[in-house]
Write a structure and sequence with these properties.
It contains 10 helices and 19 strands. It has 375 residues and is an alpha/beta fold. The strands form 5 sheets. It has an 8-stranded parallel β-sheet with strand order 6-9-10-11-12-13-14-15, sandwiched between helices. Strands 3-2-1-4 form a 4-stranded mixed β-sheet. Strands 16-17-18 form a 3-stranded antiparallel β-sheet, with no helix packed on it. A hairpin with a 2-residue loop joins β16 and β17. The two termini are 25 Å apart. Mean pLDDT is 95; it is low at 1-7.
């Protein structure tokens, strides 16, 4: 870690913020400090700070990186209104998420094209960090909160149309690899620089491995909306945990995955574990009636389900609470912070998830893993 000096040999001194647990570039925690001026890191290092410390905090980390999020603050990313997208992103930024993926649920190809075109300039101006299509190429058997009338098999002409609409901003696509045409779609998406995630799937372990060989490198919310583990038919969950090429998402809200299972999965995965929110519009908002795509959702006690007591329909999580839930489940704090910052940035190829000079992308957390306002 380096020190910056101006050409004239002088620079204004900033405020020193010190912590016994600063996230390092290798994902470990060590004592360290940052010097900041106007929110920008002007210097940083490990060990004791080089001068009087103005702020002591429990943790110093990069901003949270959420690679699966549908909205928040009463707003959705599945819209043609850029103001709504910005409002949802703002809610998550208040909880420390500096890079948020705009995830879109199943809709018609025409509607997805409109939504993607709305998001492109908002990726360009960093309101959101990328675009994720979670549908319509999903298994009807594991559709979760996706409209069954709009699910479809992947056709290359539809994939190409949405790639064109995204103008290079399509970051990730979730697909069920057992669907006819899925392998060809995975190949095209991968060659186009898109991260392919396996999810909402009835694939067995053989089909899962074939998808990985074709280029898939992620799993959408592991365990949720997929064939479960059976001792004679391990399915996608065991295959994902055993493959060191595949990053796996976990929704750490205490509802989607039991805390004991969350800890076991975090400990068992050979590759990267990514904490995600899968948040819908109700994140950061009150219980009540909402929409997720074309479907009505009821939120009761912070849990979102399809109206009438149906499937879980996303979450009301923010990333700071996801980290706290993971730690309360037994995941070591360093591993949880890494899974919420550095590792998802690596999985997406984003320049994020690391503390560095010249960046304003950093957070201080207190001992309860809550974001500290340093303004």
């Amino acid at each position: 870690m380096s020190t910056v000096t101006s050409v004239e040999g002088f620079r204004p001194r900033g405020r020193l913020v010190s912590s016994p647990a600063m996230l390092q570039p290798d994902g470990t925690l060590a004592a360290g400090w940052v010097e900041e001026l106007g929110g920008m890191i002007t210097d940083l290092g490990t060990g004791a700070a080089p001068g009087p410390v103005e702020v002591d905090t429990a943790y110093l980390i990069p901003g949270f990186v959420d690679v699966h999020c549908h909205g928040g603050g009463g707003h959705t990313f599945a819209t043609a209104d850029p103001r709504e997208v910005a409002a949802a992103a703002t809610l998550h930024r208040r909880h420390g998420t500096t890079h948020v993926m705009a995830s879109l649920v199943t809709a018609s190809i025409d509607e997805l094209e409109r939504q993607v075109q709305c998001l492109v300039p908002l990726v360009d101006n960093a309101t959101v960090a990328g675009i994720h299509l979670e549908g319509p190429w999903l298994s009807p058997l594991h559709r979760g909160a996706h409209d069954p009338e709009l699910l479809t098999q992947p056709r290359l002409e539809d994939v190409e149309r949405l790639l064109m609409a995204a103008d290079g901003k399509l970051t990730m696509v979730t697909i069920a690899p057992e669907l006819p045409g899925a392998m060809e779609a995975i190949d095209l998406l991968t060659r186009s620089g898109v991260v392919v995630a396996i999810g909402h799937t009835d694939a067995d372990e053989v089909q899962f491995r074939a998808a990985v060989e074709a280029g898939a490198r992620q799993v959408t919310h592991l365990c949720n909306a997929m064939r479960p583990i059976h001792h004679r038919s391990p399915g996608p969950i065991v295959a994902a945990l055993a493959d060191d090429r595949v990053a796996v998402e976990l929704i750490a809200d205490g509802v989607h995955v039991h805390p004991a299972v969350l800890e076991l999965l975090s400990r068992s995965a050979r590759s990267q574990v990514l904490l995600v929110t899968d948040a819908m519009a109700a994140a950061g908002s009150a219980d009540g009636a909402y929409q997720l795509g074309s479907l009505a959702v009821d939120v009761v006690d912070g849990v979102a389900r399809l109206a009438g007591g149906g499937s879980i329909a996303g979450s009301t999580l923010t990333m700071d609470r996801a980290v706290r839930t993971a730690v309360a489940s037994g995941v070591p704090v360093g591993r949880a912070l890494d899974a919420a910052t550095r590792l998802p940035a690596i999985a997406m190829g984003w320049e994020a998830g690391e503390l560095k000079v010249g960046s304003d992308d950093w957070l201080a957390l207190d001992a309860d893993l809550r974001v500290v306002d340093l303004a």
